[in-house]
Amino acid sequence: MSETILELKNLETRYGQIYALRGINIEVKKGEIVTLLGANGAGKSTTLKTISSLVPASEGTVKYFGEDITHSAPYSIVEKGLIHVPEGRMIFKELTVLENLELGSFTLKDNIERKKRINRVCELFPVLKERQKQMGGFLSGGEQQMLAIGRALMTEPKILMLDEPSMGLAPIIVQNIMDIIKQINSEGTTILLVEQNAKVALKLADRGYVLETGEIVMEGNADVLSTDESIVKAYLGE
Amino acid sequence: MTSWEIFLQQLFNGLLVGSFYGLVAIGYSMVYGIIKLLNFAHADIYMCGAFSGLIILGFLNPYVGNEWLGIIIALLLSMVLVGLLGVVIQRVAYRPMLKAPRLSILITALAVSMILYNTVLLMTQGQYKPFTTGLTHESFYIGALRMTETRMVLLLAALVLMFLLHMFITRTMYGKAMRAIALDRDTCQLMGVNVYMIIAITFFVGSALAAAAGIMAGVYYGTVHFFMGFLIGLKAFTAAVIGGIGIIPGAMLGGLLLGLLEAFGTQIPFIGSSWRDVFTFVFLILFLIFKPNGLLGRIESERM
Ligand SMILES: Nc1ncnc2c1ncn2[C@@H]1O[C@H](COP(=O)(O)OP(=O)(O)O)[C@@H](O)[C@H]1O
Ligand SMILES: [Mg+2]
User: Fold this and answer.
1) Which ligand 1 atom sits closest to the C-alpha of A49?
2) Domain range list for chain B
3) Contacts (Cβ under 8 Å, ≥6 apart) of A126
4) Engineered SS bond to A205: which of A165, A222, B101, B186, CB 3.0-4.6 Å?
C-alpha cells in the first residue's frame, strides 16, 4: 500500500448559508488517479477550491503529506506542489501562450530551469510550441485545455487536480486529453480528476468517489463503480 | 515666430507636459487594473514626491550641489521613499478594504487624499515653496526649436522612466504577474502568485513614478504647493481614460496625447491658454461618452 499524500477529513465548506460540502472524506495515495464524479452543483469544484484555499473550509481539515494545509495561503499550497487546473481552463486570454506558461512557473526563480520546463511542456504539447507568440484567447477549446494543463505542469507538481478537463470538447479531443493525463500520471504525478463525464473518467481512474449535494454517496475502485447499476443509470446514460 | 517654429515649440511643450501626465497616469491605471480602485490619493502622492525631492535636495546641496547630480540623487531617493509611502498606504488603508464593497475603498482613498494634502498644508502653511535648483535657464536653438538644457533632460528622463517601466511589465515575472492579476486574480493564485505582494509592488512602482513626475514638475515650474496634485491628478486620470484605464501602455500614450492636444488646442484662435483646462475636460467627457474603454481598451461591462 503506498502512502496517502492528500487527505480530506470531514471537510465542510459554506457559501454564506449554503452548504456546498457537508463533511466529506477523501483520500488520495501516491501515484493514483482518483476521480471525483457528480452532477452539476454537487460540490466538485468547491472541493478543489477548498483544497487550494481559494475558498475557506468552515470545518474539517485538508492534509498534505500529513501536514495540515487547511488554512495555508493559496500560493504556499502551490509552492508545496499541489496544483489546481480550474474549471473552464481559465487561461490568460490576453497574454501570449508563452507568457501563460511562464506564469505557471511563477514560484520558480531560476530562468534557465524555466526555459527547460517550457521545452518539456512543448514536447508534450507540440501545438503550444507552434503558437507560443499568439494570444491565449486565439487557441481552440482543446488547445486551451492543453495550455491550462501545460501551465500547471510548469511547477512540476506532485499532485495535479483537474476540474472537468473534458468540458465542451469533442470526443476525439477528450480522448487525446485523457491519454495525456495518463501519460503524466505514468511519469509519477498523482492525479485528482473531477469529471461529470463518468464514462471517460472511470476508464482512466484507479478509484473514484461520487458526490451528491455536498456528500460522498459512493466510493470504490473504478472497475467496480463503472459496473454499479446506480452509477450506470445516473452518469453513464444507459 | 513662423508657424513652423510655433509648431515645433508646441510639439515639444506638449510632449514634455504630456510625459508628466503619463507618468502620473500610469499609477492610476496600474492600480485600477489590479484592484479596480480609482486611487484618488495618487495625485497627493505626486505632490508628496515633489516636496520630498525638494527637502532631500536641500540636504544634498552642501555635498553634491543642486544641479543635475544632486537632482538625480534626490529623484531616486524620493522615488524609493514615496514608493514605500505608497506601499504603507496600501497596506494600512486599502488592503483591509479589498473584500469590502467597492464604494468603501473609494471613500477610503478620498480620506487618504485628504490626510496627505492636509498634512502638507499644515507643514507649509499653504505657501508656494520655490523649488530652487542650480540649473541654467539659458536657451539655445536646435534648428528652429528653442530649447533649454532643463527641458531637454526632463523629457529624456521621463521617456527613460517609461521605457524602464515597459521593460518591467513585459520582461519580468513580477510585471507579467501584475498584468495577469488584472485579468484573473483567482487563477493567478493557482499559479502560486502571492497576490498581496504583487499589489504592494504595484503601489511601489506607481507611487515612485508619480514622485518622479512631481520632482520633474517642481524643476520645470520652479515652485511646489500642497494642492499642486489636484489639477494634474484630474488630467492624469483623463489621460488614463483616453488610453484605456487599466492598460499601462495606454496611460503613457494617453498622457502624451493629452499633452499634445492641450499644446495645440491652445493655439486655436479664440481658445488660448486660459481655456486649456476646459479643453481637457471636454475631451474627458467626449471619451467617456463615445469611447469609454479608451484607445487601447477592451469591452468591459462594469466600470466605476
Ligand atoms: N461563489 C459561490 N457563491 C454561492 N454559492 C456557490 C458559489 N459557488 C458554488 N456555489 C454553490 O455551491 C454548490 C456546489 O457548486 P460547485 O462546487 O460549483 O459544484 P460542481 O462543480 O459540482 O458543479 C452549488 O449549489 C452552487 O450553486
Ligand atoms: Mg464545477
Assistant:
1) 17
2) 18-228
3) none
4) A222
Distance CA A91, CA A125 (A): 15
- How would you classify residue B260: left for phi > 0, otherwise alpha for psi between -120 and 50, otherwise beta? alpha
Query: How many whole angstroms separate alpha carbon A123 and alpha carbon A134?
Result: 18
Task: Give the pLDDT score at B299.
Answer: 53
Q: How many CB atoms lie within 10 A of CB B289?
A: 8
Query: Is B183 within 8 Å of A54 when comparing Cβ atoms?
Result: no
In this structure, what DSSP letter does residue B274 have?
A: G
Q: Find out whether A98 and A119 touch, Cβ atoms under 8 Å.
A: no
ipTM score of the complex? 0.91
Name beta bridge partners: A34.
Answer: A192, A207
For residue A233, the model assigns a pLDDT of: 73
Report the alpha-carbon distance of residue B296 to residue B207 in Å, rounded: 23
- What are all long-range contacts of A69-76, with beta carbons under 8 Å and residues at least 24 apart? A73/B194, A74/B189, A74/B190, A74/B192, A75/A107, A75/B189, A75/B192, A75/B193, A75/B194, A75/B195
Q: How many angstroms separate the alpha carbon of residue A150 from the centre of ligand 2? A: 20
Contact between A89 and A140 (Cβ < 8 Å): no
* CB atoms A75 and B195 under 8 Å: yes
**CB contact (8 A) between residue A86 and residue B189:** no
Strands A82-85 vs A159-163: parallel, antiparallel or unpaired: parallel
Q: CA A47, A51, A53, A56 torsion: positive or negative? A: positive
The answer to whether the CB atoms of A155 and B176 lie below 8 A apart is: no
Pocket test for ligand 1, best of A45, A52, A164, A211 (most atoms within 8 A of CB): A45
CB of residue A13 inside a 6 A radius of ligand 1: no
A86 Cβ closer than 6 Å to some ligand 1 atom: no
Closest CB to B190 among A84, A99, A102: A84
* Any ligand 1 atom below 6 A from CB of A88: no
Residue B298 sits at the chain A interface (C-beta within 8 Å):
yes
Give the contacts of B33 (CB within 8 A, at least 6 positions apart): B178, B179, B182, B245, B246, B247, B248
- For residues A218 and A232, the answer to whether their CB atoms sit within 8 Å is no
Whether the per-residue pLDDT at B303 is higher than 50: the answer is no
Q: What is the C-alpha separation between B201 and B187, in angstroms, rounded?
A: 19
Residues of A in contact with B250 (CB under 8 A): none
- Tens-digit pLDDT profile for residues B130-148: 999 999 888 888 888 888 9
> Could you tell me the CA-to-CA distances from B259 to B75, B193, B226, B269 in Å, in that order?
23, 37, 23, 18
Residue pair B188/A52 in contact (Cβ under 8 Å)? The answer is no
In this predicted structure, what is the pLDDT of residue A218?
A: 93
Residue B175's CB: how many other CB atoms inside 10 A?
Answer: 20
B183 to chain A: nearest residue by CA? A92
